[in-house]
Design a protein that fits this description.
It is a single chain. The chain is α+β, with helices and mostly antiparallel strands and 572 residues long. The chain contains 17 helices and 9 strands. Strands 3, 4, 5, 6 and 7 form a 5-stranded antiparallel beta sheet that branches. A two-stranded parallel sheet has the order 1-9. The chain has a two-stranded antiparallel ribbon with strand order 2-8. The protein is elongated, with a radius of gyration of 66 Å.
Length: 572
């Protein structure tokens, strides 16, 4: 309960058109007892985003958002319709001739492009290669085209370089001039710009290539796309022609070398056959049989010599013993047998004739042995000669066979390469490109700038910029906009709000309320008076203090008589 004799203050009244600054204390200075200064908020701030509050913030800043969107769309339209250079696109389509490569036939000399994806991607890069683009730039004389040769372009007066030059001239500063570009630099610049203006792509799951050129002229775009397609096909034929020509040159040289080698090998065979005693393989086989027969006869002669020598030695030994029986046992001779019988009968003359006959047989056996030795030696000499001749002829045969094999191999290579040479020479003028032009490029429609898209993006970006400005303004704002914020900050109850009056000057406020007693402002003041009187029915307030968030505003207002009258009427 408040003491009856102690003056009391009303709760805070917040006019709806005021913006109370947080932390200044101006809204409550002198209007709240010192023991009821700012209190902690009733609850902790909610970290979740209030969509309604966010929408309210954006709605309050709708004019900023609309202004930014309109400004951005105006700039985008100016760029799209005035600044941006229109560009036109033209597309030429090529079809890859799909055929499998055969390595074992003539097509290996003029092999086509594989249909694998890696090979197709390689062909795409070949089309955009610097070599073909340099040839394209030369044939179309793009060095004289300012669109591709930047050194021929006139600088914009608003470009950075021109601004720097004017500023330097204004300061009387001499800037060093860039040296003029060389011919190679100009050529590289033209090729780089041409590469940026070209696009090459392949259709998925097909063997189709699209060559797309985008320039400032529709006719120029079509000309570049068609010319590049023609250069690409011509380059394929040129590469095949060079490969065929290289194959012909290589085959010609190889055939000539093989012909010389074959002639040398055939001459070597003829010389070997002229120098050797080998007539034929049959003669060599006969010689081999003859050598075998001699070896067999030599073995028999050797055995006979040994046997004869042993018998001659035994007979020589018996000649010294004079043993008739032993001699008859060793020698089978009818004369000796008859003489031996006469000798046993006591005929001395027969005994002399017996030993004379035996001595004659001994000499005959020795002579026979010498004859066998001579025969053996003759067979040995003949065998040696035959073996030497056989070895020589075998060596010649081996050498001859080797020369014949080498000559046959050389002859096969020579005939094969000669056949390839003739086939390749016939095909030298029949090369075809691996691709063909399916459809030529024609002047197409405008592709840049896309004005509707630029305008739409400008509008969206402008709206986003406006929303960002509104949200940043809200974030940087440190005032109180709503009664709920004030209640949450001070802990006091708001018993009334007065809207902003549609007046130009403050001293016309009372007249406005008199002239329009049913207006929203007059009704809000009456509701405020009722709320103040009913705030404590037993002890209604006696004194009402009016203050403002702006220092010194209320004292200046109270100096006016109409304001004093308004305060008096409010108290009544």
């Amino acid at each position: 309960m408040n003491e009856p004799n102690k003056p009391r203050f009303t709760p805070v009244i917040l006019p709806a058109d005021l913006d109370v600054k947080r932390g200044t204390g101006q809204a409550f200075q002198g209007s709240i007892p010192t023991d009821q200064q700012f209190r902690e908020p009733r609850g902790e701030a909610d970290d979740e985003i209030d969509l309604l509050q966010l929408f309210g913030v954006l709605w309050r800043g709708k004019w900023i958002i609309m202004l930014c969107s309109l400004l951005a769309m105006t700039l985008g339209g100016y760029y799209a319709f005035e600044v941006a250079v229109p560009k036109y696109s033209a597309t030429a389509r090529l079809a890859l001739q799909a055929r499998d490569q055969q390595v074992v036939d003539l097509e290996s000399v003029m092999s086509g492009v594989s249909t694998e994806q890696a090979a197709i991607n390689t062909e795409l890069e070949v089309i955009r290669s610097r070599g073909l683009l340099e040839r394209l730039a030369t044939e179309l004389n793009l060095v004289e085209d300012p669109e591709f040769n930047t050194s021929l372009r006139t600088s914009s007066p608003y470009s950075l370089g021109e601004v720097v030059k004017r500023f330097a001239a204004w300061l009387s500063i001499t800037l060093p001039e860039d040296p003029p570009p060389s011919g190679e630099e100009i050529q590289n610049n033209v090729v780089d710009n041409l590469r940026e203006a070209l696009g090459v792509s392949s259709q998925r799951n097909t063997y189709l290539f699209d060559i797309r050129a985008t320039t400032e002229s529709p006719a120029r775009s079509a000309e570049i796309a068609n010319k590049l397609a023609a250069i690409y096909l011509d380059d394929q034929i040129r590469i095949k022609f060079e490969a065929t020509e290289y194959a012909i040159n290589w085959l010609s040289k190889r055939v000539t070398d093989l012909e010389v080698d074959l002639k040398k090998e055939e001459d070597a065979i003829k010389d070997l056959r002229a120098d050797t005693e080998l007539v034929s393989l049959e003669a060599l086989e006969a010689l081999n049989l003859r050598s075998k027969d001699v070896r067999e006869r030599l073995a028999i002669a050797q055995a006979n010599v040994v046997t004869s020598q042993m018998r001659a030695e035994r007979m020589a030994a018996l000649a010294t013993t004079r043993d008739v029986d032993a001699i008859l046992a060793e020698v089978e001779d009818s004369v000796l047998i008859g003489l031996a019988n006469e000798t046993k009968a006591g005929d001395l003359n027969a005994n002399i004739r017996f030993f004379a006959r035996f001595d004659e047989l001994v000499e005959r056996e020795a002579s026979n042995t010498n004859r066998m030795v001579l025969q053996r030696n003759a067979l040995q000499a003949s065998n040696v000669v035959l073996l030497e001749n056989l070895d020589a002829q075998n060596a010649d045969l081996s050498q001859l066979n080797q020369l014949v094999r080498e000559a046959d191999a050389t002859r096969v290579l020579y005939e094969t390469f000669l056949t390839r040479l003739k086939e390749t020479s016939v095909q030298i003028g029949l090369q075809q490109a691996d691709s063909r032009i399916l459809s030529r490029a024609i002047p197409s429609k405008l592709v840049e700038p896309r004005k509707s898209l630029i305008l739409a993006l400008s509008l969206v970006l402008g709206g986003m910029l406006g929303i960002g400005i509104v949200l940043l303004r809200q974030y940087l704002h440190d005032g109180i906009r709503t009664a709920e914020e004030l209640e949450l900050l001070t802990g006091q109850t708001i018993i009334g709000q007065i809207p902003k009056m549609p007046i130009r000057r403050r001293n016309s406020l009372v007249n406005y309320l008199k002239d329009k007693p049913t207006s929203a402002g007059a009704e809000a003041i009456r509701n405020l008076r009722t709320s103040v009187l009913l705030s404590n029915i037993d002890n209604p307030p006696k004194i009402i203090m009016s203050t403002s968030s702006i220092p010194g505003l209320i004292p200046r207002v109270l100096q006016n008589d109409s304001a004093m009258d308004f305060g008096y009427r409010l108290r009544c």
